[in-house]
Amino acid sequence: MTQTAKYEVTIIVPVYNEEDNLGRVEESLSAFLPRCVAPACVLLVNDGSTDTSLEKIRAICARQPHFFYLSSRENHGLSTAMKAGIDAAESPFVGYIDSDLQTDPEDFNVLLPHRHDYALVTGIRANRKDTGFKRFQSRVANGFRRRMTGDTATDTGCPLKVMQTAVAKRIPFFDGMHRFLAALVSLEGGRMKELPVRHYPRTAGVSKYHLWNRLAGPFNDCFAFRWMKKRYIRYTVDEQSLPSPATN
Predict the structure, then answer these.
(1) pLDDT tens figures, 17-28
(2) Angle at CA 213, nearest 5°, toward 226 and 44?
């Protein structure tokens, strides 16, 4: 059992070459934790950073008692970093926020009150501060994804989410999965709720997304999702004779 089991929420923060943002991450999240509506910790997931991010992460976790970290030598991508964090979390709920802090940790308190009733509670970025071209890319990608998957999510790219950990651990993960969380949760029979959250421009570091991985990646992933949806295995166990270890 890991330290995360002592908390109700584990906030997962994937990190890839964000050395210039980690000071703000520490300041913002350490200030938020005492005000969180549920006992929460922070899990920083270093995804093969080639700058000084790992060194900064180690230092943050050494001085912040409610911060923990995982680290991989290789860069595997956002979906894998999220999966690593979810696999490690032993709290009943997991949160997710990007390390660029274009969303506000304080808005977890907008999402968390609904955590018991919905498997996924996700933000909708109000008054987005991205460039017009970036918003256009997102509209095209989201529109195509909705037509292909049938889910009703408005803003799948919003980097502020809360999930029930038991559901998050069951959903199938694949590269690009973070764009399909709402659709994947629906495969598990989970309900989703969307709420407006604040959005800010990036102040440091470099965005990891561009035209190709915003459009071509989601295009291919939609076909993969449709294939998986038709073959997805669901079952329930209504009766069993397997005793628990405690009874032996």
Answers:
(1) 999 999 999 999
(2) 95
The amino acid that residue 180 corresponds to is F
| Number of C-beta neighbours around residue 5 at 10 A | 12
Q: Are 42 and 68 in contact (CB under 8 A)?
A: yes
Alpha-carbon distance of 209 to 199, in angstroms, equals: 17
Tokens representing 10 are 């584990």
Which of 124, 179, 125, 121 is CA-nearest to residue 151?
179
Domains of the chain: 3-231 (3.90.550.10)
- The token duo for 247 is 């009874």
d(CA 63, CA 40): 17
Distance CA 135, CA 99 (A): 20
> Strand, coil or helix: what is 112?
helix
- Per-residue pLDDT reduced to its tens digit, 100-111: 999 999 999 999
pLDDT, one tens digit per residue, over 42-92 is 999 999 999 999 999 999 999 999 999 999 999 999 989 999 999 999 999
DSSP code at position 34 = G
Sorted by sequence, the CB contacts under 8 Å of residue 113 that are 6+ apart come out as: 37
